[in-house]
């Protein structure tokens, strides 16, 4: 019997060892499965984070495109308003009575002659401004010709015809359009802010 007991003992020991090995293998398999699950979850979260980042980036780019387009349209509309204001002002300036710009006349004459560098010059102005312009001229090199179609202000031309200066109020308005546009845009922005 001793052999039978020994065999049973060895068999039990082998079964216990096999059960231990099997339990260890199952534990290692479970640990591997848990690690794999954790790795899958980490990768899934990383992929979702990348997708979220891409989506957020695309959203920001899309929003920036929409904002740029809205700003472009606002600037085009503002430019149209400014153009209409400048043209309306130009129309009114063309017919402006002399009395309304009499105080500016010395500066207009001085600037016009300055542009022509005091060379022999012919100035053109409306009849109602002719005497006032003549009173401001201190040289015989300047002729004054009536030009009823000249808008408010002055035009000047060198006698040789090589240089012409349009210093009418309409021309000055159009030359100063960029600066006026900035000032008008600021006023439009302020009035829009007040309306909100």
Q: Which strand order spans the largest sheet, edge to edge or round the barrel?
A: 2-1-3-4
User: What class would the helix/strand composition place it in?
Assistant: alpha+beta
Element string (H = helix, E = strand): HHHEHEEEHH
Low-confidence stretches: none
> Would you tell me the overall average pLDDT?
86
- What's the total count of β strands? 4
What does the secondary structure layout of this molecule look like, with pairings?
Blueprint: H1 2-94, H2 98-101, H3 105-115, E1 121-125, H4 127-136, E2 142-146, E3 153-158, E4 164-168, H5 169-175, H6 177-195
Parallel strand pairs: 1-2
Antiparallel strand pairs: 1-3, 3-4
Can you characterise this structure?
- With 196 residues, the chain is of the alpha+beta class.
- It contains 6 helices and 4 strands; from the N terminus they run αααβαβββαα.
- The chain has a 4-stranded mixed beta sheet with strand order 2-1-3-4.
- Helix 1 runs antiparallel to helix 5 and helix 1 (2-94) crosses helix 6 (177-195).
- The model has no long low-confidence stretch (mean pLDDT 86).
Compact description:
This protein is an alpha+beta fold. Helix content is 73%, strand content 11%.
């Amino acid at each position: 019997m001793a052999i039978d007991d020994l065999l049973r003992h060895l068999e039990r020991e082998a079964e216990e060892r096999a059960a231990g090995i099997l339990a260890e293998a199952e534990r290692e398999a479970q640990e591997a499965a848990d690690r794999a699950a954790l790795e899958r979850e980490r990768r899934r979260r990383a992929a979702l984070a990348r997708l979220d980042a891409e989506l957020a980036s695309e959203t920001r780019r899309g929003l920036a495109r929409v904002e740029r387009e809205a700003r472009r349209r606002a600037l085009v509309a503002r430019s149209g308003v400014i153009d209409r204001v400048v043209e309306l002002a130009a129309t009114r300036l063309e017919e402006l009575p002399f009395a309304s710009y009499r105080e500016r006349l010395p500066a207009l004459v001085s600037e016009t002659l300055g542009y022509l560098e005091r060379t022999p010059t012919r100035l053109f102005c409306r009849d109602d401004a002719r005497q006032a312009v003549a009173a401001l001229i201190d040289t015989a090199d300047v002729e004054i010709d009536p030009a009823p179609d000249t808008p408010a202000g002055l035009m000047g031309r060198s006698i040789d015809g090589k240089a012409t200066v349009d210093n009418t109020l309409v021309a000055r308005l159009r030359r100063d359009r960029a600066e006026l546009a900035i000032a008008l845009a600021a006023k439009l922005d302020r009035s829009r802010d007040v309306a909100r």
